[in-house]
Amino acid sequence: MIRISWQPLKQLELPVIPVFSRSLYRLHKLLYVFFTSLFRRLYWTPLFKSQIVGGKGLYLYSGMPQLLGSLSVSVGSGCRWSGISTVSGRWNSPQTPTLIIGDNVDIGWQTSIAVGNQVILENNVRMAGRAFLAGYPGHPINPIERAQGLPDMESQIGKIHLKENVWLGTGVTILGNVTIGKNSIIGAGSIVTQDIPDNVIAAGVPAKVVRELTLQELISRPSLHTLADEEV
């Protein structure tokens, strides 16, 4: 009886009063932007920058990235980084795992960077959401050792290097001992298991070169440069 009586109550909601509801929504957005900006400037950014080197003009959004394990992180100027992301350092590495980020780098939401020994993101790298840079696996290949909770082996880890202007689509995974060449683009959902050359589009599982970027695609459009100069 009580359950039956409770069901209609769960469906109750305030009616939409157009002028009032729109005004309340605008107020909600205004307060959200104000307090989000306040927290970002006075809380998230100072706390995060205390754990890294550099980071001039760093823009964090949606909170503060999670740093796990022993790590050395250096960040260039003008980077944007989603707070819904994780960077972990291999706990049993003989040397401190190092993440080096250049200038004007974007790291999207739900990105995970597992640093085995070193991960380098050069200037202007773009990483869409859910990217995974797997510099170490966290477990050994041997099933008995894995069941015993033993760590991964040195032979399983590797450096990851994304060169200047690399763009990773949504859900891309990069394994250890992989370098992505300058200007190259990796299609969404790809798993990269070997080096990718400069100036190409690669995609697939495992990722393979689809085609080379054309000269026209690599040359900046003058009109956009003029517009950018006018804005500055």
Automatic annotation (TrEMBL):
Q: Which Gene3D superfamilies match?
A: Hexapeptide repeat proteins
> What are the alphabetically sorted keywords of the record?
Acyltransferase, Repeat, Transferase
MF terms in GO: galactoside O-acetyltransferase activity
As recorded in UniProt, coiled-coil segments are none
Give the EC number(s) under which this enzyme is classified.
2.3.1.-
Give one Pfam family: Hexapep
Concerning PANTHER family, the annotation shows: ACETYLTRANSFERASE YJL218W-RELATED (PTHR43017:SF1), GALACTOSIDE O-ACETYLTRANSFERASE (PTHR43017)
Q: Which family does it belong to?
A: Belongs to the transferase hexapeptide repeat family.
According to UniProt, the name of this protein is Acetyltransferase
The species this protein belongs to is: Marinomonas transparens
